[in-house]
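Figure-free illustration: sequence to structure, shown twice.
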Amino acid sequence: MKKQIFVIAFLFISLQIFSQDIRVPLDTTVVTNNTVVIKGKRISYKAQTGTQPVYDAKGNPKATLFYTYYYRTDVTNREKRPLIMSFNGGPGSASVWMHIAYTGPKILKIDDEGNPVQPYGIKDNPYSILDVADIVFVNPVNTAYSRPIVQPKKKVDKKYFFGINADAKYLADWLNMFITRNNRWNSPKYIIGESYGGTRVMQLAYELQSKQWMYLNGVIMVSPADYQLLRTKSSEDYAINFPYFTAAAWYHKMLPKKLQQQDLLDILPKAEQFSINTLLPALAKGGYISSAEKNAVAEKMAYYSGLKKQVILQHNLEVPNRYFWKELLRDANGKTIGRLDSRYLGLDRRETGDSPDYSPELVSWLHSFTPAINYYIQNVLNFKTDVKYNMFGAVHPWDFSKNNARENLRKAMAQNPYLNVLVQSGYYDGATTYSAAKYTLGKIDPSGKLKNRLSFKGYRSGHMMYLRKIDLEKANDDLREFIKNSSKNIGPAKY
C-alpha cells in the first residue's frame, strides 16, 4: 500500500513540476513490421515510432521529440550499416517532407510532377535509400508532435531551443542518447537537412564532433538555406541568385529565341559566369557605376532573365526574387510563379504589385502532405494521439546571431578526413537557389584543399526536387552512391 501511495505521489509531483500536454507521452515507442520493394528487391524493415526526451545538464526533461526510425531486419552486421539522421528546416518545419516524399519507405500519392491527387494517401517508395541505410526522421521542438515541457506558470525557454546554436546543441544531446539507446555507435553516420536544415546540419556536424565526440561520414544538404547570404540584400545576394532567373525564364519560355532553343544545362553556365564576372562587380560599384556600363549590364540581364530592361534599370540592377515571381509572366498571362518551385503558377487579386499574394507551390504541397502524414502515423505506424501534428510550429523569433555554421562545417571536415559533403538543389528553386548552394560550397572551403570531398547535384525541379518522379529516382540514386562511396573503408583517418 505504501509503495502504491509513493508511486501516485511521485507521478503527482512530477506533473506539478513539469507541465506538458499529457496527450503526448514523454518517452514511448511503437514498433511495426513492414516490407517494401526497392529497386526490384523486397526489403523487410521495422518502423520504430515514438517520443524521446530532451534533458538539460541536471537531468531534467526540457522537451520530448517525436521521431520515426526505420531499420532493415535482414541485416546481420549493423556495425557496417549506415545510419541517416534526417531533418527538415523552416525553422519550425516538421521532418515530414523528406519522410513521406523522398528517402523513406513510403511516399505521397501525387502525380508525376508533384501535384495533389485524390484520394489522398501514401504508397510504397520504390526508390527509398532504405536498401543501403537505416533512417531516423527527427522533429525539433514544436514541430510534428514534439513539444517543450514547461513548469506551471512559466513560459517556454526559447533561448534553449530557438536559435542556430541552441538548436544544434540540444539536438546533438538528443542524438547522442538515441544512438546509445539503439546501439548505433559503430555505424557510419550521416546527417541530412533540407532548406534551413542546411544551416542546421552544418552547425550540427561540428556540435556532434566537438561536444559529443560523434564523428560523421557525411553531411547532406538538400536545397540549403545559407543565412550568411540569404536575404542579406547584399551585392552578392542579388548577383549569386541571378542564374535562377535564367532557369525559371527558360522553363516558362520567356527567354530570347537564341537561348530558348538551347538546353537548360547549356545556358546556365553562361548565366553563372555573367553573374560572377559582370553583374557582381557592377553591383559593387553602386551609384558610381557609369551610365554606359549600367545600361550594358541591364541589357544582358534582360537577355538572361526574360525581364524588361527598363524594369531592371528601375531597380538599379538589384531585382529581388519576389519581384521576379510577380513580374516574369505579368504581361504574358498575368500569373505569378512559385517561390520554392517556379514551375507552379498562382493567381493574384491584381496583376499590379511587386510580390505575389501567396506561394502556389506551398499550398499545393500542404494540400497533399497534411492528410497523408496524419493518416500514415496514426493508421500505419500506430502512434495514436489527439495532439495536432504541426506541419509548421511556433519557433519565432529565431536567433540567427553568432552564425558560424559554414566555418564550423569546415572545421569538422578538417578534423575528420572521413567527412564528405553533398549538396542537392533544384534549378527552379527561387527561395534557396541552386547557384547560392554552389556559392556556399565555395565559401565553406576558401582554401580549396577540401574540394575533393565536396560535391553538387542539380535537378530540373524546385526546392523539393523529389516531388517530380524522374528526380525522385535520380536524387535517391545520387544519395545511394554518396553513401556507398563515403562509408566504405578507405584506411586510417589521417592526412
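We now fold a second protein in the same way, so the two outputs can be compared directly.
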Amino acid sequence: MAPSVSAAPARPPAPAPTRSRPWYRQLYFWVLFAIVSGVLTGWLWPAAGTALGPVGTTFVAAVKMLISPIVFLTVVAGIGGVDSLGRVGRVGLKSLAYFQAGTLAALLLGLLAVNVFRPGAGVHADPGTLRLEGDAARYAEQGSDQSWWHFLTDLVPTSPVGAFAEGNVLQVLFFSVLFGVALKTVGPVGAPIVDGVHRLGAVVFKILHYVMLAAPVGAFGAMAYTIGTYGISTLTGLGRLVALFYGTSLVFVVVVLGGITAFLRINIFRLLYHLREEFLLVLGTSSSESALPRLMTKLEGLGVRRDIVGLTVPTGYSFNLDGSSIYLSLAAVYIAQATDTPLGLGQQLGLLAVMLLTSKGSGGVTGAGFIALAATLSTVGTVPAAGIMLIFGVDKFMSECRALTNLAGNSVATLVVARWERVLDSARVNQVLRTGTPRPEAPGERASAPVPARR
C-alpha cells in the first residue's frame, strides 16, 4: 500500500513565526532598511549605485536558481497526494478561468483610468521624430516577432533539462504536471519516489532559507542600481503617468481584490501585511519571481492545499499578471494621447481584445511588460509602436508596481481557487493572519485532505 503524503518524513517548512522575534531581527525590517539605503546611495552617489547592479542581479539569480526545482517538487508532491486526478484538472481549469476574469478586470480599470485622467493630453509628440534605440529597440523587436499564440507554442519544452536550465516556469510546470500524473497512475511503484520528493523538498527549502539571508544585500544593490542609473529626476517628466499607474494599481488591489477577499471573509489588509516580507523583496529587486518560493510556502501555511498552491501560483506567474494588464492598457492609450492618435471606443476595445492574449506567458522575462506592449501595438497598428520610447525612461519604476500588483493578484487567486474547490477554511486563514503563526499539520492529516469551508 502506498504511503500517504503525511507519512513523508519532511515537507517544505512553513515560514517561521515572525511576531515572536524582535523587530530588528525580522527580514522585512532589514529589507526595508536596505531599500532606503539603496535609494540614498543611488541618489547621492550615482556612479557607486550603478556599480552595485551585479549585487542585485546575483541575488535574483540565486533565487531563480531554486524556482524550477521548487515548482517541480511542489507540483509533484501535490499531485502525488490527491485522491483523484480529476481534481488536478479541475483545479487547473478553474485557475485559468479566474485568471482570464482577473485580466479583463485589470485591463478595463486601466482603460477607464487613462480615459478619465488623460495623462498624455498636451504632450503632442511627433511619431516621425521618435527613434527606437538601445534596450527599447531590442524589446520592440522581440515584441514585433511575438505572435498572439506564443504562450501556447512555448508551453512544451524541447527537453525537460532545457526547461530547468532556462528557468522557464511555464515549461517546468507542464513537465511537472505530466510527471506527477504519471507517478500517481503507476500506483505503489511510485511510492518511493513520492517519499524521495518530500525528502528532497525539505533540502531545497533549507537552501532557500540560506539564500534569503542575503535578501537585504540583494535589495540594496538592486535599488541603488535603479536610482543611480535612471535617477529620481527621470520621474518628473512622466510623473502624471507613473502616479496614475500606481494609483490605479492601488485601487485594483484595495477595491477589486479587497472585494474578492471580503467575499471570502478575509481582510485584504491583513493578507497584505502577512506577505509584507515578500512585497518588500519584490519592491527591492523589481522581480516578482524573487518572492515566488516564499509565497507558495506562506499560502500553504494559510491552510491552502498543496496541489492548489503548486498549480495556481506558478501558472499565475504567466497567466495572471494583473499589474502588467493595467500597465498595458494605460501605456497604450497614453501613447495614443501623447502622439495625438485618435482612438474611438471600438478601437480601444480592439486593443483590449489583443491585450487579453499578449499579456499572457511573459512572466519573469526581462522587459516582459515592454515586450508585451510592443507586441500589442505591432499587432493592432493603430498606435505608433515607436511611441514606446516616450515611456521607456520610467518603465523601470513602473515595473516595480507591476510586480507588486502581480504578487497580490496571485495570492488572492490561490485563495479563490481553494474556495471554489470548497477547501478554504476562512477561520483558519484569519487565525493565521492574526497570529502570524501557521497552524501545524495534525498527525495523520493528508496534505490534500479537504478542509470544510466555513460559511
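Summary for the second example: The chain is about 70% helix and 0% strand.
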